[in-house]
Amino acid sequence: MKKIIAILCALTMVFALAACGSSAAPAAPAAEPAAEPAAEGASYTVGICQLVQHPALDAATQGFKDALTDALGDSVTFTEQNASGDSATCATICNQFVSDEVDLIMANATPALLAAQAATGSIPILGTSVTDYASALGIDDWSGATGINISGTSDGVPGDQLAGVVNELFPDAKNVGLLYCSGEPNSLFQADEIRPVLEGMGYTVTDYTFADSNDVAAVTNTACDENDVLYIPTDNTAASNAELINNVALNKQVPIVAGEEGLCSGCGVATLSISYYDLGVVTGQMAAQILSEGADVSSMEIQYAPFAKKYNPVNCEALGIEVPDTYEAIEG
Q1: How many domains does the structure of the chain reveal?
Q2: DSSP structure class, residue 324
Q3: CB 159 within 8 A of CB 186
Q4: In whole angstroms, what is the distance from residue 44 CA to residue 294 CA?
Q5: What is the DSSP letter of 253?
Q6: CATH no. for residue 163?
Q7: Is there a contact between 181 and 212 (Cβ–Cβ < 8 Å)?
Q8: Whole domain around residue 314: which residue ranges?
Q9: Do residues 209 and 323 share a domain?
Q10: Has residue 6 been placed in a domain?
Q11: How deeply is 113 buried, as exposed, middle or buried, from its count of CB atoms within 10 A (0-12, 13-18, 19+)?
Q12: What is the C-alpha separation between 295 and 282, in angstroms, rounded?
């Protein structure tokens, strides 16, 4: 009995000491989540994962940085990484951002977005230069917002509008080839969107896909041999090989309608253009709302950019193509 009483007394002393310790040194509060409004003097680290270097994506990244810096000044620090076109490298970059506990990730292009999604379900992610978020993220019941820790901006241009460019400039063409990378979900989405519209206009439409940069020349040669006009969506692999595509297409006198201005400058004759810099600016403004105002990324609707008809004067002259006055020349 004495042993039992001694044990009970010892336990009573332990609990008493624990209670005293708790009242004397309360546990530190949990860190505020990234979505909470910013405290005065707060600082932020933003990780930027860009799939590959080319003018459109570069412009989007610059617009993002400029807009966020304009909003938050020196309180924001950027960690910028380029994956050189490799999806696996995107994953490595995004996982490192998570380990570094960045406050927000900006994912430039779809593979970068998917890598960021796989890396974290809590850190806010903003995509840009992504055409279709529903398809990329596998969301069936699309409402305009993802409902998860992802939002951003889209470079998508309606397929019927782009088909209208093909029909306006090449009404007598019979065969249209869709040239794109099979490994880019956005490109497949755009091809699937424009194909039935072109077929409804009476064109015969055939897909020509390359797996990576090694296949671009051969596939482009075949596409040019078998078609009157080519259409290339906003495809990162094609954009990185625009000069090669241009050399083949001009040599074979086959015009290309492109999905965006940078690609059109490199190898196209006409496009419906958006400003990727402006797209990045909108993304940066969204980031500022998340970091400094506590906006909920999961409920932020995907934002889109306005577009305008533009043409490549050098390629149009080389192919003898006259464009209506409603088209604006691409400078440079």
Answers
A1: 2
A2: -
A3: no
A4: 13
A5: T
A6: 3.40.50.2300
A7: yes
A8: 159-273+308-329
A9: yes
A10: no
A11: buried
A12: 15
Buried b (16+ CB within 10 A) or exposed e, 249-281: bbeeebbbbbbbbbbbbbbbbbbbbbbbbbbbb
Reading the chain (332 residues) residue by residue, the pLDDT tens digits are 433 334 334 434 333 333 333 333 333 333 333 445 555 678 999 999 999 998 889 999 999 999 999 999 999 999 999 999 999 999 999 999 999 999 999 999 999 999 999 999 999 999 999 988 998 899 989 999 999 999 999 988 888 999 999 999 999 999 999 999 999 888 998 999 999 999 999 999 999 999 999 999 999 999 999 999 999 998 989 999 999 999 999 999 999 999 988 899 999 999 998 888 999 999 999 999 999 999 999 999 999 887 899 999 999 999 999 999 999 999 86
C-alpha to C-alpha distance for 39 and 32, rounded to whole angstroms:
10
Query: Could you tell me the strand order of the sheet in which 150-154 lies?
Result: 76-82, 44-50, 104-108, 125-130, 150-154, 303-304
**125 domain-assigned:** yes
Domain presence at residue 226? yes
Q: Amino acid identity of 155?
A: D
Do the domain assignments include residue 1? no
Question: Which tokens in the block code for residue 20?
Answer: 């005293």
- C-alpha to C-alpha distances, 41 to 38, 101, 302, nearest whole angstrom: 8, 19, 30
Q: Which phi and psi angles does 181 have, rounded to 5°?
A: -85, 130
Token pair 């990780």 is at which residue? 47
CB under 8 Å to 67, separation ≥6 — which residues? 280, 281, 282, 283, 284, 285, 287, 288
Helix, strand or coil, per DSSP, at residue 122: coil
Single-letter amino acid, residue 93: I
Say yes or no: 58 and 205 in one domain.
Answer: no
Rounded Cα distance between 31 and 188, Å, is: 42
